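[SOLVED] Need 3D model of a two-part complex

Original post:
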Amino acid sequence: MSTTALPAATGRPWRARLRFDASPVQVAAALLVLAFLLAFLVVPVGRVFLAAFTDGEGRLTLVHFGDFFRTSLFRESFLNSLYVAGMSVAVASVLAVPLAVIVSRFRFPGAALVSTLGVLPLVMPPFVGAVAMQLVFGRNGSLNLLLMDWFGVRLELMDGLNGVVFVQALHYFPFILMNLSASLSNIDTAMEEAGQNLGARGFTLMRTIVLPLALPGYLAGASLVFVKVFDDLATPLLLNVTNMLAPQAYLRVTSVGLGDPMGYVIGVILVVVSILAMGGAALLLRGRDYSMQQRGGGGLGRREMSAGQRALAWAFVVPTLLLVLAPHIGIALLSLATVWSFSPLPDGYTLAHFSTVLRETPQFLTNTLLYCGLAGLIDVVLGVTIAWLVLRTRLPGRRVLDMLAMAALAVPGLVLGIGILRSYFGVQLPDGTALATSWIMLTIVYAVRRLPYALRAATAALQQVHRSLEEAAENMGAGKVTTLTHIVIPLMAGGLAAAFVTSFATAAVELSATLVLATRDVDAPLSYGIYVFMQSPAGRGAGAALGVIAVLTVAVCTFAANRLAERERRRRTRQQGTAP
Amino acid sequence: MSEPAGVAIEHVSFGYGATRVLDGVSLEIRKGEFFAFLGPSGSGKTTLLRLVAGFGTPDSGRILIGGRDATRQPPWARNVGLVFQNYALWPHMTVAENVAFGLQRRRVPRAERDRRVRAALDLVGLAHLMDRRPAQLSGGQQQRVAIARTLAIEPEVLLLDEPLSNLDAGLRAGVRAELVELQRRLGLTTILVTHDQEEANAAADRMAVLNDGKVLQVGRPAELYDRPASRFVAGFLGTANLIEGRVDGGAFQAGGARLPLPPGAASGPAVLALRPQALRLLREGDATLPARVLRAEFLGGHVRYILEAGEALTLVAEEPHLRGLDPLPPGAPVGVAIDASQATLLRA
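Solution:
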């Protein structure tokens, strides 16, 4: 900007240093974003913390935490949550590590299969899969009925905490698979060859060179899985496991009431443990992000497999694929089943459940389209605004906006939901409903929860638009606004579309905050509908039908987002290809 | 044979699928020699080096190291030290750990290992940085660590894959001199892969010019420069006038001009190779060949002239520049004197 270029020498130096370097438009945009984040992220979370640390008269106190740890149910829930999160990481690792090694270190004919397998679980929210998993792996599920018939044994895969671990591990293992595969294939071939040249091979090479270099990817994935599982409310609830932290907080707030401090105490613990887990991983990884330090060379060379190795790989991949597909198959069967109980397969098949949900509760679908579509739009607008302020302006404090928006990552949906209730329950809309439980708030909460993803996508998209492209437009006589509308936004479009679709799809299956905030069936979205239907055996068919619709929606959106991102990447490589 | 060669490459061919990368390559690198593989990118020189290190097995032919057949030996059993183009220092280890790695694999006892790590780092002058991580070093320092890491295992052969290409231009000459000095001091059989003729000329005792997977010529740098055996070698090493024409009646006919010939040339189509400095420009008096200046490029130490002779013969000549000697303007007539003993006649 032309106003910023004068050196301090002409005026008083202190004024030059304090100069407020921004235009009114920038200030207004920043203030609007800030107001949104304060109102719907900072204040609600702040109210949760305040409620946890103050007594009835508003004095600071730790007494609620004392109460928490004196109550055996809470102590048990805390340990259970840690156990489930830790075990989920362990089980997910058992699935993910071999798969990652197979696809990134060997020429394996089934590699495409494994990468498909890597996304399949993510398109099905764990609470949808949970019921199907019970039908397949439960005490009286297909697998155990067959095992009883054939061998007279029963596997207790779905009982109590282990059921939660099983469902979560199967759902979240792709996070470890994707991160670990990425860091394994980022290892420069020369790293490994240098080891061989100096006398290392086989397991020694793996232990001394390959694994240490891949560790950052593994830890990034594992900590994410830990936090997601630790904070999750819906899966344990659906599996009827209530002696964990998130369900306890939910039960407290919904049954004892908003005045009860225990819900807030648990909320604080959820946030703190999440931050500790993420921070711990970040601390372990400090100075270990090697991806940028490996120059030149290609990825780790994939080597041929011997016949035995290939057989071993298939023997691992096929059962894993079946395991991963089990919830998908289960939910599809359930949505088409007349009756499915105490038998390996349903007694008969019907489309009645689909017609029921489409005829009787179409609002679940339309609500989801409306809320999540709006939330996606809000995210794209906020994401672009913040990215633009951070990357293209010199507005003081612009990084604070970025940090605030990203902080939403550390706030579990349940905690945000409780905070919103606490902050806005008293505020009434003109028609008399409480703002906190209105659909508007649900939309806003979805937007806040998904903002970090949209913001990262927008930042990445804007970073790809080289400054010189804008300068070239300005040089040709285009003003700031024309440059924005004709150059920058078209160039970011692919990335932004991907951001919108991702926000939309993930919001469509968010349940933790939804459970806290949705009260009436008319206003409720798809995820809530699935939850309500799944509560009763009679409604399971209809719930599964909604589940199938949700899974298909997410699958289509994920596919679209990937295609968009892929197209964008190819366009960029083409651009770079023509550069000198 | 008295002493086995440092490295002997016998009729080695290699390819990926249908693409032939190396085609019947045979070379003998003497013990203690500094040898260079010189060629443009895609010539197969790096592939050949990697085969010597054991990264890949020739489709046919043999590779002998110190007289023993190493063709099917895996990389970790060969005891040849390869310095990678991008250094390939492991970022998760310190400098000392990087250098100690090969010694640990060889089960060298702790005390001995520490001594050799220090000795190797002393050799490259970096012992004081042994606790640093590679990311904390400059490019030149990283390269020296990579060399120390390789020297620590006391390899039979040292292989250098474009070792200077990742260094700033200003550093290259100095590091190159250090490398040569180190190699002479240790008497280590060394193979340098490079596409930079100046690098090969300055460092190597002998070199092989490769193109399209074949060895075109082997010899001392000056030998190859003075007596190129093919158009490719003549053009790849330095600047050369490669003039297409015919040998006819004791002279070379090209573009309507007559050029002198080295003795003993048979009649027929041929290519005459002439270095620019073999053309002497005469501003007056008798000349072998009258010409006209098309363009002059002032290069500091010398001036390069693009000349036109005869009807359509373009020649490049170089003349040392001294103070007071203004470059000739375009269009100026000059006489060109050609020393026939400097000319090389190549097959067309």
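Edit: Chain B is about 25% helix and 35% strand.
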